[in-house]
Amino acid sequence: MLTEEFDWLGGQLTSQAVPPDEHSWVERFGVTASYRALRDGIRDYYRRHYPLTAAARTWRDLNPGAGHVSRLCHEPRVAVAVLEGMLSPYRSNGRLRVLQPFVPAAADTDGDRVTSVTLRHRDTGELAHVAAPYVLDATETGELLRLSGTEYVTGFESQAETGEPSAPPVAQPGNMQAVSVCFAVDHVDGDHTIDRPERYAFWRDYTPPFWGGPLLSFRAPSPRTLLPTERIFDPNPDDDPLLVDADQRRNPGDHNLWTFRRIAARRLFEPGAYDSDICLVNWPMLDYFEQPVIDVPDAAANLAAAREQAYSVLYWLQTEAPRPDGGTGFPGLRLRGDVTGSADGLAQAPYIRESRRILAEYTVVEQDLALAVRGDKGAVSYHDSVGVGMYRIDLHPSTGGDHYIDVGCCPFQIPLGSLIPRRVDNLLPAGKNIGTTHITNGAYRLHPVEWNAGEAAGALAAFCLDRGCTPREVRNTPGLLAEFQSRLDREGVERHWPDVVGY
């Protein structure tokens, strides 16, 4: 039984409209076989259904948007189609049932086990009661942890707890990374200016104390240096998308905000297929870090404020943003709710960077993988590795007033211990709610790592059902662990890195 709150399956990749953030070696190694099948499927979908140019069609590593943030920037709807296709055989043979749109509302427990989950239809309020031997929490905010009473942590742990060099002396559970409500735009003839948001004046004048100027500006701190950096905004530039080098090792790619997360590059398609590029807006000015949206009584109001901030960013772009010709405003920017699948024009779901995280048998800490700590030794090698990942330790400004933390990271492994709660026996985290800290979550929260964590959690539940054991027994029994890891190996889950250096 799979449940989904929004109209599209896929979360971060689809309903949140975030192109995949991936490491520099993704085309060769460092992801699971099933994640590679997703990526290959997205490219194949474009080749089968879209009017690509001859050059784009033969581009082995097709990047449909020629965005700089990823080697596979694409429209979210394509990922939805591919994910649905991957699930279709299991729906047809009756092994999978999808309840959509449903949200978890309650959980029943018996001692250290979750016995059932109550789900509520998002729109009608209809209730569904589901009992199962295992429950996997792949929600963006770790909702099942709260509902089931599974011990978890939020926000910033203290240095005394984790020993992390970048942690504060006192824990800050309410200090969480910014959320963003993304949206897609193109730039065409005409005036497509939206209605002025009610609190637009607040967002236009909002100046975070560490920002060095107004939030709504093309001048913003560089995440890696924290120095004020001037970006440009050049809709539909005269660039050759085939020459885009989307490699975060060499260039973060955010100089021109239009091409940074572009998800459709018009010149990769036959003339006339697209009136304009399509740009996915997920920029520094979109980060909502005024208040947390987890474990606070006014979470819904804070999410509404994040959506209003997104509209205010768009309105500022359409009316007041400086143009290269000396004028102001880009009224030709058109909100593309059809691209994000939403009636209000924005992404269906907010982009959640930081979740509730289980108190795990093993918690990954900064000193396990930070390049500044580990150097040429590489990340800590875990005997119970169930996968790999790589991304810089990338923390956006947070609700506690912290600036970016964006530092080098070593290619790392995912320890099985980070998937096992300290107490509860049959609930497994399957996303960004695994046993990381506020700091290491910044490296583990990206698309291929979350996919790997979820795949490992699902495989673990299946293995435990087959062998009549618990996840804890698998990790702590050498024979069972070796058997489980061998099963992952056969399924194409890479558990070790070749000799590569972080960035």
From TrEMBL:
InterPro entries named among the record's database cross-references: FAD/NAD-bd_sf, NadB
UniProt xrefs under Pfam families: FAD_oxidored
Protein name, per record: FAD-dependent oxidoreductase
Lineage of producing organism: Bacteria, Bacillati, Actinomycetota, Actinomycetes, Micromonosporales
